Amino acid sequence: MIKLLDILKEIGDSSSQPYKFDFYGDYAGMRVYGFDTENYPYTVELRYEDFDLYDENTSNILSVRFYVSDEEEPDIEQDDIVTNKGELFRVMATITSIVKKDIQDNPGINTITFTPAKKEGETANVSRLNLYMRYIKHEFPNATVKPIGTRGAIEVKLK
After folding, report:
1. How far apart are CA 24 and CA 99, in angstroms?
2. Contact residues for 83 (Cβ-Cβ < 8 A; gap 6+)
């Protein structure tokens, strides 16, 4: 019965339980977290841009990037890997938990940016974008979302 409940949560109703994650450190404006799934080690990088709590007119941007770390070569970042091992929604729940925790710890953040990774040879990854947008709309229902630049980046203005 427990397995059936886990499977139902994986369908993507945003109720998937996050993996346990660790804070690795703060490195010159970038906070790094990590977690392990049954199949892959993930790294989540949260980079601060234009962060100035003293100027209300400045956008306090949190740029989010996550990727699978290569187990043999930890310095190799694989952000275009196709994992699809039944852990997709738990991975998204974990990244969402990390971002929400970091925003709670840094209340001056008013903007999140990210760029969905593309598979080799593609100009856009619509399926990843749709997945990310579903999580954003669920977790930040009052946010304004718009594309920025020409590389597929997305800006999420928090309210």
Report:
1. 14
2. 37, 39, 40, 68, 91
- What CATH number does the domain containing 136 carry? 3.40.630
Which domain does 51 fall in, by range?
A: 2-157
C-alpha 104/C-alpha 106 separation (Å) is: 5
Give the chain's end-to-end CA distance (angstroms, integer).
Answer: 40
* Mean pLDDT over each residue of the chain, to the nearest integer: 78
Whether 72 contacts 120, CB under 8 Å: no
Report how many domains make up the chain: 1
16: Cα separation from own chain's centroid? 15
| CB contact at 8 A, 34 and 21 | yes
pLDDT at 76: 56
The C-alpha atoms of residue 81 and residue 151 are separated, in whole angstroms, by 19
pLDDT(82) > 80: no
More confident: 81 or 6: 81
pLDDT at 100 over 90: yes
Tokens at 107, concatenated: 């209340």
